[in-house]
Specification:
The chain starts with a helix and ends in a 15-residue tail after the last helix. The protein is built from five helices and three strands, in the order H-H-E-H-H-E-E-H. A three-stranded antiparallel beta sheet has the order 1-3-2. It is globular, with a radius of gyration of 13 Å. It is 53% helix and 15% strand.
Length: 103
């Protein structure tokens, strides 16, 4: 890992919304945008922006199934693993409801 990549990862971890996304994924394993939107209370384009940053820094993985993209933590990322205990301790106002993404 080079210095530029390390800076990008810590930039990604410095945002409250992105930390909440990581917390939700650590608690639920895998979620789609449809499940994240009501919990985060942000617009879909804003959520996509944050997910792209997390994906580009290898903090999350994405998998397209049908019309939905499912996101999960990339547990091969050593920086994520080093910060996972803190991420899991983050308190959320809401949790995902029983909304499911139909594939």
């Amino acid at each position: 890992m080079n210095e530029k990549k390390l800076k990008q990862i810590y930039y990604a971890l410095s945002d409250e919304i992105r930390l909440k996304i990581l917390k939700l994924l650590s608690d639920n394993g895998e979620l789609c945008v449809y499940q994240l939107l009501p919990v985060l209370n942000i617009s879909q384009p804003n959520l996509s922006f944050h997910l792209r940053i997390l994906r580009d820094t290898d903090l999350v993985k994405s998998e397209k199934r049908g019309k939905w993209v499912f996101y999960s933590l990339d547990k091969e990322n050593p920086i994520l693993l080093a910060n996972l205990e803190f991420i899991k301790s983050i308190k959320l106002d809401k949790t995902p409801s029983d909304l499911s993404c139909v594939t």
